[in-house]
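Hello, quick one for you while I still have it in my head. Could you read through the record and tell me how the tokens relate to the sequence? No rush at all, and the record is pasted right below.
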Amino acid sequence: MAAVAGHTNMIKLLIEQGLDVNASRHQGLTALFLATLGGDLAVVDILIQSGADIHALADGGDTIIHAAARFGHTKVVEFLIDQGVDMNALTDDGLTALDIATENEYTALVEVLNRRQVGPSLAETGNTEV
């Protein structure tokens, strides 16, 4: 909960006390997934610097970039790309972060992903969801 709520001091304390930053909870969500869902860049940074796996998958094949894109967290997505997260990764449903941002009409995030030269999206390939 501290990761979602952006409690940086609590996260630091938990890490000092031996928190396994890669432990997963319900639906395969790690603290880093929860932090990206919450959109708190400081917590995301702390967790990554503490060894959180940026390539972990949640149930459904989501990566942390998909989690951030689902809530339109543009700054978090940019940071994750800079950290080496694959912005062209596909969910189990074949969606990229760009597809998710487009479907949710997160214009600023769509612009960032396009500027970062994301690969083909559903719109560009002609594929549509079933």
In short: The chain has nine helices and no strands. The chain has a mean pLDDT of 86. The chain has one domain: 2-125.
